[in-house]
Amino acid sequence: MLKILYFAGLRERLGQGSEELELPAGVRDVAALRDLLAARGGVWDCLLTLRNLRYAVNQQMARLDSPLCAGDEVAFFPPVTGG
C-alpha cells in the first residue's frame, strides 16, 4: 500500500487530504504515480497542469524519477508562499 497525501490548495481542489492505494504493477516512480492519478480525469488533471508541483517520498523532497516501494508515503503539494 501507498499512503498518498495532498496538501494546501491541492487538497481543496481534489476534495481530499489523503488516500491509500495498492501500489499498481508498473508504477515504479513518482511520475508514474502522478500519471496514474491524473488518468482519473476531471479535477485530477491538475496533477499534470499545476506549475511547480512538489513531491515528497517518506517526508523527503523527491523528483519525478524518485523510486517508489510498497509502504511508502507520497506527498503532493503546490509551492506555498506567504508573507
Automatic annotation (TrEMBL):
InterPro entries: Beta-grasp_dom_sf, MOCS2A, Mopterin_synth/thiamin_S_b, ThiS/MoaD-like. It comes from the Bacteria. GO terms for molecular function: nucleotide binding. The keyword Methyltransferase does not apply. One of its GO terms (cellular component) is molybdopterin adenylyltransferase complex. Keywords: Nucleotide-binding. GO terms for biological process: Mo-molybdopterin cofactor biosynthetic process. Belongs to the MoaD family. This is Molybdopterin synthase sulfur carrier subunit. It comes from Candidatus Accumulibacter appositus. The gene is moaD.
